[in-house]
């Protein structure tokens, strides 16, 4: 069995801590088991996959702009399948399937199981996932799903309606045939569905690899990874449920009655937090069931207000009744925001200020932290110049083929188009000021990622300069 872990998301559901670069699965708000440290949803589920020996056959499907975040949290050896642009679950699963087929050379009869990256689950969930392998083979189903036993008539989840009601006293009946699907019903309809034996759709799909390969071949798409990547934007931007599952002839569902929770709203996420307060702040004793999550360096004080969540970050501030917190996604869906806090494989940066000086001259100020032993890529920019002030730390700086030692108080001017990079010997804190006609993260040409390659490049440049002088 191969596992595809879907790690995408738009970053609006847990605003303002989440953004387009740091979707909800990357927020470090969950307490690690047997530790005082915090971990994110993706770190937790990857650790769980390791605990049941599924990680060696698992791959993380993620967007191009979230690669650094995944590598930062999971490690530089994380097995990634990279989507060139944002799509939906169907194009992501299609690309991952073709990757397994053409790059990994997986057997077409091998079962592929697709999991979301962000559910709060326990070990029994993964034991059920393992069982899907055998069920797909033995049942000859086109697709097998996992359906959670509803604990209340939720309007937030999709429902799987089986042909017969699940009977927990019939252990020999390991799966049910699916009759139909209902997406996010109103509460009264959800009650009726539960009475009919409907299950929550947990977003878990299992199928033989050849099923998806045949599906894509019928649609006329290439079955080589590099070729499909080139036409990725032509794949339907639609969910896997709508494009594939609801059209399939033989779909089965496996009832799952273990721990499962979608931590997709502040209300559900705070239920699993180990503390009512993260970051600077005070919550008065008469403020019951109130949470403060504060990433700013100023205190947040809540007095006499219950059942609310206060979340603050460089992106903004949210104050919400917990039961209404799910509305933030719709409220912010049309807001085009620049991510103000971003994790990278080498550390993180925070946007401090963004100013329009004139019609064709902009300025942006960042604080950058590069962890000891790590480096940013050797790169250049077409539309901006930069000035770097080293606040603390020791490192090595490369500019147009020359190497310099750096220390606290040093200032470097980087002209537009200049090749540059930096490595932290001890953790570096830098203030970066960008200036130009257009200040976009996409304005970057990466020449080398590995610092040894940068040193080799600079040495070759030095030799050529010496040869010219001689």
Automatic annotation (TrEMBL):
CDD domains named in the record: cupin_PMI_typeII_C (cd02213)
One of the GO BP terms on file: polysaccharide metabolic process
Short name of one Pfam family: MannoseP_isomer
The name this protein goes by in its record: Mannose-1-phosphate guanylyltransferase
Source organism, top-level taxon: Bacteria
Keywords of the record: Nucleotidyltransferase, Transferase
GO molecular function: mannose-1-phosphate guanylyltransferase (GTP) activity
Gene3D superfamilies: Jelly Rolls, Spore Coat Polysaccharide Biosynthesis Protein SpsA, Chain A
Residue ranges annotated for the Mannose-6-phosphate isomerase type II C-terminal domain, each copy included: 337-447
Residue ranges of domain Nucleotidyl transferase in the record: 3-273
Keyword Transferase: yes
